[in-house]
């Protein structure tokens, strides 16, 4: 099975093949399909594509030896994250919790922290699921409903590629 790389849609990936001979001993280098690459006759090149592709690399050594390799490029969607700017925890079952919504690129919400306008830490949620409208902050502090107001949030997100992304801003609580 060919090696593969994941490429985020609308981004460029860089290819640096590992070869077991000096690069200067290669008399021919050819990548196909050429239209996807910044240089189809360079060993190191970059690739841009809108969909999954299989790239082929053929190299010819000065002694006449020919080697072929294949690389699957798997295009994944960009992270799409929606963070509401208002919520109203009034118990009607809709918009009762503050959480974020995303596509499948966010694996987990590692942390959600909420602060009041004086900087007091009033909520921390750990290992929350994105898109779960019944988890997150419920508008309470120490079991009591907070008054309407503006609060500051800080999200720490684990992305599916293993990176950690932070998002912060403010949320308006309406009663």
User: What topology, given as strand order, has the largest sheet?
Assistant: 8-15-14-10-11
Can you count the beta strands? 15
Strand fraction band?
A: over 45%
The number of helical segments is: 0
Helix content: under 10%
| Domain module tally | 2
Query: Quick one: overall form?
Result: rod-shaped
Q: What is the gyration radius calculated from CA atoms?
A: 25 Å
Which CATH class of the largest domain is shown? Mainly Beta
CATH architecture of the largest domain: Sandwich
Spans of at least 5 consecutive residues whose pLDDT stays below 50 are none
Mean pLDDT: 95
What is the CATH third-level topology name of the largest domain? Immunoglobulin-like
- The quaternary structure here is single chain
Encode the helix/strand succession as letters: EEEEEEEEEEEEEEE
Termini Cα gap: 57 Å
Structure class = mainly beta
The biggest sheet, with number of strands, parallel, antiparallel or mixed sense and barrel status, is:
5 strands, mixed
